[in-house]
Design a protein that fits this description.
Elements: H1 3-7, E1 59-61, E2 64-68, E3 74-78, E4 84-88, E5 107-109, E6 112-116, E7 121-126, E8 132-137, E9 152-154, E10 157-161, E11 172-177, E12 183-188, H2 194-198, H3 215-221, E13 241-243, E14 248-252, E15 274-279, E16 285-290, E17 306-310, E18 313-317
Antiparallel strand pairs: 1-2, 2-3, 3-4, 5-6, 6-7, 7-8, 9-10, 10-11, 11-12, 13-14, 14-15, 15-16, 17-18
């Protein structure tokens, strides 16, 4: 898969987790339509042999379908017949999971398949054989870190985030060289200081909905709990959108930790519950939009961001757990 393949609207292939780097999840194919969808019948069935829910979005390249099981086993199948071409188990060691195992899928790029693992690793496999090419440790799984998102690969780099906010991680997104596995940068979703973590003490969300916060009480407690940014959560569980024209990533950051107890984490808890734009070359923050300050309902995060144009302007959007 080349960079040019990832910027087009998918046709007979589905080269990226979101269909394209913009995460459109849209195909122009019209072979299946309203008039014939009711007559579809199974052509093949492939049993993974693994218990657990499938949350993977298959990637299809050159008649090969790549998918993952709940525990991160990568499957390469003949897309026409369902025949298994190869499989590779990431062999996760120590894992700390709140809600059962899950894996969102792979990224295929320049003869490699990239997958994250439940024990917080990024693994690169040969796309034809499934043989390991390199792996990189993201964080210590014994501290609650895991990785479940489908990585994003583009312009010679691979981007992946970590999960585990229910265990008090400090979330981040990291970039790696696609060929060598060298880490290029790491952006933490929780600022490394209390004022940055506290934010602007917002009483409403961006749409004016009251958050029913005791701002005065939070400020009074803020000195005692000023250390909580270090375990503030902010996992990144969905694949970012990428705009190659400005070399920018758009990331949906999950909620803060602890999930529903806001009393020990005063402030807006930046940058949880936010869409953030990052410079893909450096990992520097370009801007952020916090849609849910001080989340105490577990509603932050949700779906991957996607990019679109309207009236000559470019936008980023996502569907959230808040119903908007």
């Amino acid at each position: 898969v080349a960079d040019s393949d990832l910027t087009r609207t998918p046709d007979a292939r589905w080269p990226a987790n979101g269909g394209s780097l913009a995460n459109h999840r849209f195909s122009r194919l019209q072979q299946v339509n309203r008039s014939n969808v009711s007559s579809l019948v199974p052509v093949w069935l492939h049993s993974t042999g693994i218990e657990g829910a499938l949350e993977t979005t298959p990637v299809v390249v050159d008649n090969t379908l790549y998918a993952t099981t709940a525990r991160g086993r990568v499957l390469a199948l003949n897309a026409a017949t369902g025949e298994r071409l190869w499989s590779r188990d990431p062999d996760p060691g120590t894992v700390t999971l709140c809600c059962g195992p899950s894996n969102k899928g792979v990224s295929v790029y320049s003869r490699m398949v990239y997958v994250s693992s439940l024990d917080a690793r990024l693994v690169a496999l040969d796309a034809r054989s499934g043989e390991p090419r390199w792996e990189a440790a993201l964080a210590d799984p014994a501290l609650g870190y895991s990785a479940t998102m489908a990585p994003l690969a583009a312009d010679g780099r691979v981007f992946v985030g970590v999960s585990g906010q229910r265990y008090g991680i400090r979330g981040f997104l990291a970039a790696f060289d696609a060929e060598s596995g060298e880490e290029l940068w790491r952006w933490h979703s929780i600022p490394a200081d209390s004022p940055g973590w506290w934010g602007q003490w917002r009483a409403t969300d961006p749409f004016g909905t009251p958050l029913d916060r005791d701002i005065r009480g939070e400020r009074a407690d803020s000195f005692v709990t000023r250390w909580t940014w270090g375990v503030g959560g902010g996992g990144i569980a969905t694949t970012p959108a990428y705009d190659p024209e400005n070399d920018r990533l758009y990331v949906n950051v999950e909620g803060p930790a602890p999930v529903v107890d806001g009393g020990v984490r005063p402030g807006d808890n930046l940058y949880t519950g936010s869409i953030v734009a990052l410079d893909a070359r450096t990992g520097d923050l370009v801007w952020y939009a916090q849609y849910l300050p001080h989340d105490v309902w577990g509603l932050a995060g949700g779906s991957p961001p996607f990019l679109f144009e309207r009236g000559g302007e470019r936008y980023v959007a996502f569907a959230g757990r808040t119903g908007w």
